[in-house]
Write a sequence for this structure.
């Protein structure tokens, strides 16, 4: 507990936010700032204190916890992260194995094996979907109307079902849908002969016969003449039952737009990264204005498209989707404007910390290559996901039967109808495929974050050169070291951290489903319990996601597996609650605008290019998800660098005696933390 003299008049700080008292400036255990210790001087210093630097010793295969004393020291006392006892700071420094001193070994290898096994199942599912012969038939059904023989009607024509209640699979192509009843419609059809004893039911007649039908009132709906007096036309007409299939099938019609969107995403993300590097503060405020303008214009375009009676007159489902999208986009534009004003101080603070990240990245220039590697892997995963999705939803079989149809003249006819039935069982496997794609994309992005975090930790825990004010790196290429250690040791930890949060989200989705279902059952108790479960699961998911991110950084610093890193991260968070809360969102806020502007720019251009596509919503959603992933891969360099600098700064202070005794932190970083992230009463005490 801090105490202040009565004459000062200053209030005591809260007891739960105590950080260790600073050591005096003459403390022998605190190294002098700005002085570079060579390897020999470092070893001599340790030897004089009775310890030896085992850097590079392969005998110590078992990693010691970062913040625990050595096992062989009987006089050592246990110390927490932010309240070291007498002498615990020196013990903490000796037990610390961060940067290049980290003794790394393979971590969480079991989860890497599970990830590989999951991908084996995804490949088997994809091979099965690729070998289905019904994909071509499915493409005909989702693009245009198809008559009873399986022939596509073509663009601008419709399918009319004369007996949709009894035979929903019998329809023929017409140029105009009849809008009145009792009109004579004459069509040439290949009729089947009437059944006779011992006749072959499968025999076909090649002659065309004129058949007359009495029409009923219809209206155009996409490529079908839908009944005007039936409330649920989609249920009555077989080809309109597969609405999801129509949206998925639209992905196969816009390959050119998807390719162009990939190029736009790459260019805009790389350009934003360049602007962030050379004019960070200006880029943040310019991004705010740009995102607000894009959201406003996008909501305007959607409102115009949804309210214009000329657009999508034959597709009420598409018009309804546009109306929902317009409402969501308008709310997003208003919400972003409110948040921009509310988060203005945090955005200014984030812009200031971008300069510290740029200082570190100026000595780690090879890190700029990492986003392009992630981009290439995301491109492969993106095309794989779309291709397998189309094949999964296109799986099915074409069946034929002899149907008896009621007509006007003659009274009844027999025709052979052909219909396509989707494989609903295989469609359920899309959930397995979607979860694998999410896991893989998060895994790819985590690789770039781990490489960046490891390289930045090596940079931070290097000594300063007083002449050049740069870090004196003991490694020739820290980025190469980070890449090697990531792929050699920590892929298992990446697989675990990438997939640990999603199962909790699925459980929350299940309770949300129960909540929506109980709204129709009028069960107040069940609805309240479902809401409470959703709230608790959301809190647990948020805490788990935050701890996973912090343990991810600890693994990058000292090379331990997920559980020890998560344990240390939890201790660090609880001991530095107020500071960690202040630091938490700085890195995220610094690059969130970049992610939004890259994503919104790509989607806006794609919207103009998708004007001729029948169902552009799902392609637009796929482009939005991909562009956000690419933007994250590029901007995560700055986000991870800022978070790692602040994490290393917190560890640095605690290793060297507490507040104000960071030995490796650059002076500008210390000033920024003291000015913005430390309470005034803690700075003055």
């Amino acid at each position: 507990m801090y105490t202040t003299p009565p004459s000062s008049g200053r209030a005591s700080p809260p007891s739960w936010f105590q950080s260790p008292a600073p050591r005096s400036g003459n403390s022998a255990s605190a190294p002098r700032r700005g002085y570079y210790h060579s390897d020999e001087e470092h070893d001599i210093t340790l030897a004089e204190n009775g310890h030896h630097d085992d850097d590079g010793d392969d005998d110590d295969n078992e990693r010691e916890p970062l913040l625990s004393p050595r096992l062989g020291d009987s006089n050592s006392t246990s110390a927490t992260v932010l309240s070291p006892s007498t002498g615990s700071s020196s013990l903490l420094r000796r037990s610390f194995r961060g940067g290049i001193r980290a003794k790394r070994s393979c971590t969480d290898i079991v989860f890497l094996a599970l990830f590989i096994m999951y991908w084996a199942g995804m490949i088997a599912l994809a091979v099965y979907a690729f070998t289905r012969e019904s994909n071509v038939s499915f493409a005909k059904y989702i693009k245009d109307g198809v008559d009873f023989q399986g022939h596509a009607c073509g663009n601008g024509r419709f399918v009319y079902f004369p007996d949709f209640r009894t035979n929903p699979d019998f329809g023929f192509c017409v140029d105009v849908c009849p809008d009145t009843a009792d009109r004579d419609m004459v069509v040439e059809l290949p009729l089947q002969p009437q059944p006779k004893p011992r006749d072959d039911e499968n025999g076909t007649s090649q002659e065309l016969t004129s058949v007359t039908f009495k029409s009923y009132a219809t209206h155009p709906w996409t490529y079908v003449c839908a009944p005007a007096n039936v409330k649920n036309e989609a249920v009555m007409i077989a080809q309109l039952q597969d609405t999801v299939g129509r949206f998925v099938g639209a992905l196969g019609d816009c390959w050119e737009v998807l390719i162009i969107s990939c190029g736009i995403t790459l260019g805009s993300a790389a350009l934003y990264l360049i602007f962030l590097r050379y004019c960070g503060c200006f880029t943040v405020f310019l991004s705010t204005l740009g995102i607000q303008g894009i959201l406003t214009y996008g909501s305007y375009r959607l409102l115009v498209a949804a309210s214009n009676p000329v657009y999508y007159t034959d597709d009420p489902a598409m018009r309804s989707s546009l109306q929902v999208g317009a409402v969501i986009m308008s709310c997003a534009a208003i919400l972003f404007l409110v948040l921009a004003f509310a988060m203005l101080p945090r955005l200014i603070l984030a812009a200031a910390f971008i300069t510290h990240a740029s200082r570190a990245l100026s000595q780690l220039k090879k890190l700029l290559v990492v986003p392009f590697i992630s981009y290439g892997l995301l491109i492969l995963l993106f095309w794989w996901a779309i291709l397998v999705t189309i094949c999964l939803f296109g799986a099915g079989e074409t069946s034929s039967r002899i149907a008896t149809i009621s007509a006007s003249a003659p009274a009844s006819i027999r025709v052979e109808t052909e219909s396509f039935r989707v494989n609903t069982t295989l469609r359920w496997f899309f959930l397995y495929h979607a979860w694998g794609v999410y896991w893989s994309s998060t895994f790819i992005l985590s690789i770039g974050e781990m490489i960046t975090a490891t390289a930045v930790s090596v940079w931070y825990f290097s000594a300063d050169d007083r002449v050049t004010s740069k870090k004196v790196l003991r490694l020739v290429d820290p980025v190469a070291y980070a890449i090697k250690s990531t792929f050699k040791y920590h892929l298992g930890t990446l697989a675990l951290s990438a997939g640990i949060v999603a199962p909790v989200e699925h459980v929350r989705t299940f309770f949300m489903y129960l909540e929506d279902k109980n709204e129709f059952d009028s069960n107040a108790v069940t609805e309240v319990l479902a809401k409470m479960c959703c709230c608790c699961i959301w809190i647990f998911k948020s805490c788990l996601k935050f701890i996973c991110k912090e343990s991810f950084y600890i693994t990058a610093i000292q090379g331990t597996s997920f559980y020890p890193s998560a344990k240390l991260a939890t201790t660090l968070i609880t001991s530095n609650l107020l500071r960690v809360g202040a630091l938490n969102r700085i890195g995220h806020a610094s690059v969130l605008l970049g992610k939004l502007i890259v994503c919104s720019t790509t989607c806006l251009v794609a919207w103009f290019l998708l004007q001729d596509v029948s169902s552009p919503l799902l392609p637009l959603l796929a482009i939005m998800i991909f562009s956000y992933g690419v933007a994250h891969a590029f901007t995560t360099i700055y986000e991870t660098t800022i978070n790692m600098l602040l994490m290393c700064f917190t560890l640095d202070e605690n290793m060297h005696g507490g507040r104000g005794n960071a030995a490796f932190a650059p002076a500008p970083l210390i000033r920024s933390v003291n000015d913005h992230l430390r309470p005034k009463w803690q700075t003055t005490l």
Summary: DSSP finds 23 helices and ten strands in the chain.
